[in-house]
Amino acid sequence: MTLAEASYPEDLKYHPEHDWARIEGDEATLGITWYAQDSLGEVVFFEGPEVGSEVSKDQPYAEVESVKAVSDVVAPVSGEVIAVNESLSDAPEAINADPYETGWLVKVRLSDPSEADSLMDAAAYAASLE
Amino acid sequence: MAGYTPATDREQAEMLAQVGVDSIEELFAQIPEEVRLDRPLNLPDGMSESEVYRFLAGLADTNLDAERIPSFLGAGMYDHYVPAIVEAIISRSEFLTPYTPYQPEVSQGGLQVMFEFQTAMSEITGLPVSNAGLYEGPSAAASAAYLAMGQTRRTGLVASRGLHPHSRETLATHAVGFGATLTEVGLEDGLTSGEELEAAVTDETAAVFLQNPNFLGAVEDIAALGEAVKAKGALLIVQVDPMTLGILRPPGECGADIAFGEGQPLGNRLDFGGPSFGFFCAKEEYIRKMPGRIAGETEDVDGRRGFVLALQTREQHIRREKATSNICTAQALNALAGMVHLAWLGKQGFVELGELMARRTAYARQVIGSLDGYELLHDAPVVREFAVRSDRAVEELLPLGDESEGPAPRLPVYPLGRDYPEYEDSFLVAITENRSVDEIGWLAHMLEHGQAGWGEHIHEHDEAGNPVAGAAQ
Amino acid sequence: MSEPTLTETPQQADRATTIYEKSVPGRRAAQLPPLGEGVEETPLDQLIPAHLLREEPAGLPEISEPEIIRHYNRLSRRNFDLDTGFYPLGSCTMKYNPRLNERVAALPGHAKLHPATDPADAQGALQLMYLLQESLAEITGLPTVSLQPSAGSQGELAGLLLTRAYHADRGRNPSKVLTPDTAHGTNPASVTMAGYEVVKVATNEQGGVDVEDLKAKIDDDVACLMLTNPNTLGVFDENIAEIASLVHETGALLYYDGANLNAIMGQARPGDMGFDIVHVNLHKSFSQPHGGGGPGAGPIAVSERVEPFIPRPQVVRIEGGEEEFYDLDYDRPKSIGRLRGFQGNFGVFVRSLAYILSLGGDGLSEASRLAVLNANYLKSRMSEGRSGKYLPVAFDRHCMHEFVLSGAPMKKELGLKTLDLAKRLLDFGFHPPTVYFPLLVDEALMVEPVETEAKEHLDAFAEAIEKILEEAEGDPAIAQNAPYTTPVRRLDEVAATRNPRIRQA
After folding, report:
1. CA nearest C457: which of B107, B23, B6?
2. A44 touches chain C (CB under 8 A)
3. pLDDT digit string (tens) for A89-120?
4. What is the number of domains present in chain B?
5. Closest chain A residue to C494 measured between Cα atoms?
6. What is the CA radius of gyration of chain C?
7. pTM of the model
8. Which residues of chain A lie closer than 8 angstroms to B312, CB-CB?
9. Nearest to B291 by CA among B257, B260, B314, B275
10. Judged by CB atoms within 8 Å, which residues 294-333 of B form the interface with C?
11. Which fold would CATH assign to domain A13-117?
């Protein structure tokens, strides 16, 4: 499998635990960063939350597994889960191949849109990895 | 003294020189003086191999084993005939002496055995997913409870009184740690009370535990009992005797979410209770919540078929405090014995053995149930074990001889009083292909006439362990 | 990238075939005895209602006896085993398994004894268990032993349930258990199963418990501290006395994971160090064969104050009358109850007692001394040359029975991961050490050479490592693509876990 090249898109917001949020109005799409998937290795399983459940900023809401590691996924923002990426149950490798598009994890309706202000932009996140 | 250690004095000196110390004692200097043992261990001196053999053979000789007296003991472990190839295969160094298959490239034998075993257990239980084995039967009940509680986020456990008393006690022990409550459902005419079960299952119930055949030997209608369980969203968990599954409807076809049990009847010696193996089979949806090892099929870099430990992230060495279980042993050697025995029985033999047990048991039940002073405890259908009520106290009918000079041998049947005070006057009789019609006759005779003539069925061993006169086998 | 051009070995060319694929309809092995005179061939549905019966036979193989033997012999040759070669798997104590022990365990008086046999007819078996209890009590320095737990992990859980019962009996209900960050994974898993919360304690520069961190974390809400000593770094914790008193001052118990007991038999005893509960792995220090992943046994030894709570039944000796009588004592009102069926893994007890009787007190003590000598010798050999350069010892000092190396420099300078080194060792005929444990050490290799290994095997192992590192200096791809000579080469574990195929289709 070809893994994506390191990249941190400009339009996303980043959490220090290597999670991203794409904020569109009062909704956000969440996922893990290129760095996170690279450290984890090939993802074999994604265990997401249920639609309708609440996620809280800085708290784990899902798990991604590689063959010999399990990692909690931390929410960069709070809100109610309105969609889970169902295609990951058959093809969790999308998290490695395309972490920002087909490898998204969940969509949430934001409970406190101002939380986004505390997240990093791409440049700050990339700098934090140095 | 046999240390099995090769290092000569000269080699020890060379090794110490390499390390740069003058004595082995220096290497222990990091242990503080106050906790060093300042005397030799108070254990006997080491013995030669022949002396150890004689001592332990002497102890073994005082036990009344199933080759010396026809044993009708069961209660989960049975005196089946284990074919000679089982011993031949499990004695091979390549199966006996490796560790858990952490390096799959050099563990393909063991991993493939696990894969074959998982397939066999799936086939006999009718459930799609099996692990590679657990410690033994009753503790597998605790593993099943842990899975059910995690799955349902509920804390209530309900168990039929027909569930093996050791499984119920083990559940009770673990429930304290799990934060679970355990409720029992009574028996009626030998079978789990459907009415009591329905009343006991609530929205807080994580799982209901049944056993088939139950501890009194009775064949339960699992599918019918399961309806009340399903209605409340609880898991239906069934302990099964694997040797009865040649003829009984498998738990997977009766709506069970999980089936588990004691594997000893499959290829394992009685060994006074262990080691044996436990098995654990479940519906597909629980695959990532299973306890223990699971082998999976894959390919190597050149495309050759191979096997690995799959789904390891469930396990303690990766998930640590969030693991699905703390268990890391699969009883691999015991499971191999089970697999070889199942292969030896094969598709036809497995059914035939079930039929043989059911027919001989029906015969024995009829013979013993019609003796003066005895009656059947229940009339429910049975496969290989049945319960008998006696007019006399069970403790009174067991001794096979005069006890004025010390304890006499006991009639090998299972008294129910310790586990079931309500059946204090009853006992279980277990039948295998090893228990001949003659021996059933002997049991009937002993029950009817007490002590006379018991000696003719107790056998002596020679030095090699072979029975000397007319052994039961 | 280069890779030796290899033709397939004959064993590699012989692809895996399962016993189901060898099945031929109509073949069979078993011949069962006849029903017997007077037993009728009643149709099954007259004995058991038809709706409770199986409709189709279970899908078991149809195969003849000679084919079964061939199949499993062939599989056996696809395993590496201790009787074939050096197996320095850290924390697993892969010592020789004496065949005498197999012989005595197989005696019919042991092997064919039903577990529900009345104690009067099982005096030899109960005496054997009693002798093992007494022996383990002496070795651990604690007064009472329960043989019941099936394995170390079940011993741990038993110990934690004992801890809970002990505190409950004193009207306490603490919620936390402390474990060092070097602990075996079973420790935290068992803690959760016992309903406790895991709190990690840091490791100090010598590889022992960070006493300052312990002081910061221990309080009234701690039920116990679980320790392995020597720990998983192969280091004996010199502060054990201080640790014990810190733990006991708060009313908590001290739990000893006996995985590493092979280092200290006859040298020091957990009971004398202040431990309250110890589990012993009979499949490690006491030579029960590992069987490819079981069976084992995990007896627990406990202090006087924990004794009332041990599992039941317990083997006891009753004096009086003409001779002693061994019995199973169920009347233990404060007991945590059962952890499993019957009396435990008796067959394992026979083997372990045979081992203890063979060695005696002096022999056990000597076994530990030589295990420690072997470990230090191999560590010293591996501190030289390329292994010294690329595989430094973590927490370098005299070790106990095992030591831990870090493959971090090897990874950085040669591009070789610890996994690559392990796989290349397979081509040299060695089982690799434990890898990637303890988690504390980057690219860890944990080596436990045990006392039953001769010096020439330790030398050969050190030389093989040296050779692999030298080879990697020239061309790391050789190790990166290893192994080449094993029955199969590196396996795709990702596919096996993404789409698990765990049974014959």
Report:
1. B6
2. yes
3. 889 999 999 999 999 999 999 999 999 899 99
4. 2
5. A67
6. 26
7. 0.95
8. 67-68
9. B314
10. 294-302, 304-308, 310-313, 315-323, 325-333
11. OB fold (Dihydrolipoamide Acetyltransferase, E2P) (2.40.50)
